[in-house]
Amino acid sequence: MPINIPKQLPATKLLKEEKIFVMDQERAYTQDIRPLNIVIFNLMPEKEKTELQLLRLLGNTPLQVNITFMNTATYESKNASKTHLNTFYSTFDEIKEKKYDGMIITGAPIEQLPFEEVDYWREMKEIMEWSKLNVTSTLHICWGAQAALYYHYGIDKFPLTQKCSGVFRHILTNQVEDLVRGFNDKFNAPVSRYTSVSREEIERNEHLTILANSEEAGVFLVKSNDNKFVMVTGHLEYDAHTLAEEYNRDLNKGIEVEMPKYYFPNNDPSSQPLNTWKAHTHLLFSNWLNYYVYQATPYDWE
């Protein structure tokens, strides 16, 4: 089944070329079914790349999904065009009276800042508080995951001695949860961050369950026991070349960073990386949409 997105969204052409079933709003309105309503709070600097990455995953399920993009009202993105944001994005004030079946809060390149020093932290807190009563389940990615652990559970992030970047092997620590149904006991996942969270603090919290962990990269997948919040500390949504783009961007800025681990074939940055995590990415998103959103959300929110 399709994802329902604005007719002129730039990602539409690429999604169709990849045979992802997309439907514009005009056609969707003629279908007499109850679609899922998902809001994506996109905090990543390159909005259109993140849109494409997430839409291809949300479009690979048997469910019709209506997508709303949201951006910050208290901070103006330096990388996204105003025309694109004005055309395809809403602010929180414009959507806060609505109910949503699911929400995705992306990462953001601000993890080295204390949460309280983030320009839009007050707005972020308001949105996360709103999600408790107005969203069936929220999927938080990377910095978004750390923000959720801090706001909802008081678990702060801590700085790493060097950036954790690469494709790391993760181990399932809980194999019975629906969110990881179909996962291998070990799976690869991209990680790209300067901070981490304490496994011990999460394990001591009676409201949280760790589902996957890496000896090198730390905690990867956490859920609240009521399935309201899912926290992914890495970037399963990344394309094969995304870590390479980040690495080259940092080098061009004069930032001293190590080459992403276990990523380039033969550790040769000129080699084309392979996507070794795609299957588990699709499993995670389809499991979340099915078990935590579709089967949990009310047919009529009112």
Automatic annotation (TrEMBL):
Catalytic residues as annotated in Swiss-Prot or TrEMBL: C142, H235, E237
Residues under site feature: Important for acyl-CoA specificity: E111
Keyword match Ribosomal protein: no
Primary subcellular site in the record, as a coarse category: cytoplasm
A GO molecular-function annotation: homoserine O-succinyltransferase activity
Enzyme class (EC, first level): transferase
Reaction(s) the record says it catalyses: L-homoserine + acetyl-CoA = O-acetyl-L-homoserine + CoA
Pathway info: Amino-acid biosynthesis; L-methionine biosynthesis via de novo pathway; O-acetyl-L-homoserine from L-homoserine: step 1/1
EC number: 2.3.1.31
Keywords of this entry: Acyltransferase, Amino-acid biosynthesis, Cytoplasm, Methionine biosynthesis, Transferase
Site (Important for substrate specificity): S192
Positions with a binding annotation for substrate: K163, S192, R249
Subcellular location: Cytoplasm
Function: Transfers an acetyl group from acetyl-CoA to L-homoserine, forming acetyl-L-homoserine.
Family: Belongs to the MetA family.
HAMAP family: MetA_acyltransf
NCBIfam families assigned: metA
Protein name: Homoserine O-acetyltransferase
Organism for this UniProt entry: Psychrobacillus faecigallinarum
Gene name tied to this protein: metA
